[in-house]
Design a protein that fits this description.
It is globular and about 45 Å long. α1 packs across α2 and α2 packs across α6. It has one domain: Trna Endonuclease, Chain: A, domain 1. Helix content is about 35%, strand content about 30%. It is built from six helices and eight strands; from the N terminus they run ααβββββαββααβα.
Length: about 180
């Protein structure tokens, strides 16, 4: 019962996770945090040693393939703050490993090429008269222009506005971006 309550509060998280699960088609493992229908936090660390001093952040979704992190997804349903958007990206870019007991305690390193996706709930953020859509496009363009960062495996960045759980086109676009990472 508790999982359903969480999903009602984070319906966009769950909808994005379900789309990614369908799109992966066995090419990778989708690991979900509790807001996305999972049962755990997804902590990212600098280096292969788990500790409070090496933990950077928790993210919403990870795609792991061949024992490496290939995709990181962060979903924001509550608002749009450039410092929050850029901060989560930078924390993830500084990190190098996912470490969690669910992975038998192994430190899973980032792949040589990692896609970082941020999904923003446009139904709550894109109000008439604001310029948040343009600001988001600017942030995406600027982050993409500085990639890859020195000593970071994050090689691509995408920012998507999805207008709630009924925006099937927006949710499918996120899924396509993830499935495209597995196309050679």
């Amino acid at each position: 019962m508790q999982e359903k309550e969480v999903n009602l509060h984070h319906s966009l998280h769950f909808a994005v996770a379900e789309e990614l699960q369908k799109r992966l088609d066995g090419r990778g493992e989708l690991i979900r945090d509790s807001a996305c229908g999972g049962t755990q936090h997804l902590p990212l660390f600098v280096g292969p040693t788990k500790g409070r001093n090496t933990q950077m952040c928790n993210v919403d979704l990870l795609v792991v393939s061949e024992n490496q992190v290939r995709v990181i997804v962060e979903i924001e349903e509550s608002g749009f703050l450039p410092t929050k958007i850029c901060g989560k990206f930078l924390q993830s870019a500084i990190a190098t490993h996912f470490i969690h007991d669910s992975q038998s305690g192994f430190a899973l390193p980032y792949s040589n090429r990692v896609l970082f996706i941020q999904v923003l709930d446009g139904s709550k953020i894109l109000k008439q008269g604001t310029r948040k859509d343009l600001q988001g496009e600017l942030i995406e363009r600027q982050i993409r222009s500085i990639l890859p960062l020195k000593e970071s495996s994050i090689s691509d960045y995408r920012l998507f506005y999805v207008r709630g759980i009924d925006d099937h086109v927006g949710i499918k676009a996120v899924g396509k971006a993830v499935s495209d990472t597995f196309v050679t």
